[in-house]
Every structure is written in C-alpha cells, then in structure tokens.
Design brief:
binds ribose-5-phosphate, 2 domains, Alpha-Beta Plaits, isomerase, alpha/beta, EC 5.3.1.6, 30% helix, Ribose5P_isomerase_type_A, NagB/RpiA_transferase-like, ribose-5-phosphate isomerase activity, 6 helices
Length: 222
Amino acid sequence: MTQDELKQAVAQAAADYVAKHAPAGSIIGVGTGSTANFFIDALAPLKDRYKGAVASSEATRLRLEGHGIPVLDLNDVDDIPVYVDGADEIDAGLNMIKGGGGALTREKIVAAVAKTFVCIADGSKLVETMGKFPLPVEVIPMARAHVARELVKLGGRPQERAGFVTDNGNLILDVHGLAITDPKGLEAQINQITGVVTNGLFALRPANICLLGTPEGVRTLG
Ligand SMILES: O=C[C@H](O)[C@H](O)[C@H](O)COP(=O)(O)O
C-alpha cells in the first residue's frame, strides 16, 4: 500500500469513529495536513448529520467549505465531542509532535476544547522516542533571536522555517537534535520561554486514541 492509501484508510476509519461516537447535531473538530485532508473528504458524505465543524487552520476551513460543511468560530462553540487530526510523530503513550504544516497553535486550542482527540497517522509516524522530526515552535517575530538562544540552552538546534508565516502572523522555529525523553516536561519548559506562542509537543494533552495505518490494516492504539 502507498502512504496515501494508508492515510486514506485511517481517514475512513476516523469518519466511521465519528459516525459512531459524535451525536447527531454536534460539531466536529478538524485538524490540518495531508491526513486530515483525507478525513475531510471522508467526512463530507456525513455532513448533514452534523451542525458543522471547527477548523484548526485556514487551509482546513477552505477545504471544509469546499465540501459545503459549515465552519463555526470556536468562540461560539461549547462542546466538541471528537477532534480528528494527524501527527508528525506519535509514541506509545500517544504523545505527539505536530506542526509540520505550521498549524500547531490552533490545533492545540481546538484539541483543548475537544473531549476525544483521535490521531490518524500512517505507521511511519509511530516512534519509540520523539525528536527525529524537528520540533516546531511558534514564535512572536520580535522574540526570534531570544527564543532561539533559549532553545539552544535546552540542547536543540533551532532553524527558522524560511519564508513561512503562521495563520496567526508568527514564525516557526524548527528545533533539530532533541531526544525527547520527557515530553510533558519539555512541552511545559518551552512554553515558559517568553515570546513562544506554543510548541508542537502534544503531551500535556495527548491523543485519546490513535488509528494507525499499516499494510495489515488499521490498528487502534489507546
Ligand atoms: O501543522 C500541521 C499538523 O500538525 C499536521 O497534523 C501534521 O504536520 C501531520 O501532517 P500530515 O498528515 O500531512 O503528515
């Protein structure tokens, strides 16, 4: 199976999960990225069952609207039963690195509201120790040099993502060379650096389940 076929399989499994667990009339949280895009396509046939979706990025908003799925402002929503999103890396504890597409902050906000976070990923994303994928950190532009110096003190090699601006008007530092043995501790520590908006570790709010695409079928973790 190709990587896209694995992503499609987990996206369909997530749509089936939503159909089973999100009550009719509820609002679905939708992540960002290539795997989340397959999920949006799989969700489209179910759209009349739900009130709409909350999008974790402008790209996701456009794709949802392209399918005729109403997109709601998170400030008008109290309850998101299920949030579905991809990951760049995930470990056995369902901690994740996210933000390869730069949408980490809005993803973290939607995930904070959601009751259940369903991570969808092809098998290549499952790792023993996270950190091979450079950790994205969203930074207020005037704090770039200060935050980079602080990240070096933590043992990382930050690199500005060239020419990239987040949906929130900020920049991304991708931090190379971290072996993340304490994901919760590192997530909290990086978020303490003045000028950091948030970082791509999802360990303080990990996924609740992961639907993992393998050539043998979709495995459920968690
Ligand atoms: O900012 C992007 C998101 O965190 C994505 O969910 C993550 O990068 C995974 O993307 P993909 O499904 O394209 O591998």
